[in-house]
Specification:
Layout lengths: L2 E4 L9 H10 L4 E7 L11 H8 L5 E7 L7 H7 L3 E5 L6 H10 L3 E6 L17 E5 L14 H15 L4 E5 L7 H7 L3 E4 L1 H4 L3 H14 L5
Parallel strand pairs: 1-8, 2-3, 3-4, 4-5, 5-6, 6-7, 7-8
Helix pairs in contact: 1-8, 2-3, 5-6
Bound molecules: D-xylitol-5-phosphate (DX5) and zinc ion (ZN).
Amino acid sequence: MLKLAPSLLAADFSRLHEDIKVIEESGAHYLHLDVMDGMFVPSISFGTPVISRLRSCTDLKFDVHMMVEEPGRFVQDYAEAGADLITVHAEACRHLDRTVRQIRRLGIKVGVALNPATSLSALDYILNEVDMILLMSVNPGFGGQKYIPYVTEKIKILRSCLNERGLSADIQVDGGVSLENAEEIVRAGATVLVAGSAVFKGDIRENTRAFIKLLEECEPWK
Ligand code: DX5
Ligand code: ZN
């Protein structure tokens, strides 16, 4: 099933509760929460106090994207704050296997993210251990950037690699996803679309519904 994960980073932080309700009522599947540490990426966003407070506002699954150096230091805190899925960057983990196992032991889903220019070969030995692979389609750190076109080819290669191995992990694509390019991204093999500006700028209800309709109508990649 194709899923939509609106990214809270693009929301109006003075009315998070209301806007989360709107995306939930309009059919979004996940709430994508971008945690940034000012080290792995140039900006700082929010952390566990915000996430645990939001946990009681919604039943949406919390998809926590950690753009943090050595995220293993914090994964337990984020699981306790309410994360249903934690994604860590391969580039940020000195011991990726250990961090993936650490998340797994917390009883939640685990994802591994790659920056646009990081080779898929970084996933070779960890692919069987993860529920989701996040392919960044912008350089992480900011919302509102343009989709990098070469990532579409990367999605296709990863999807065939998963198929060859008989794996059904989700491929999440994050950055510059819009109603204009969503279909191309899904056809390439993505199953979870993150959208920040394309959901939260303008009419949130209308935008979310338009994405959901598009995902429902898209031919599944298989
Ligand atoms: C970027 C974040 C994204 C971001 C996407 O570092 O990981 O989740 O919020 O925003 P848009 O959809 O506006 O590119
Ligand atoms: Zn993200």
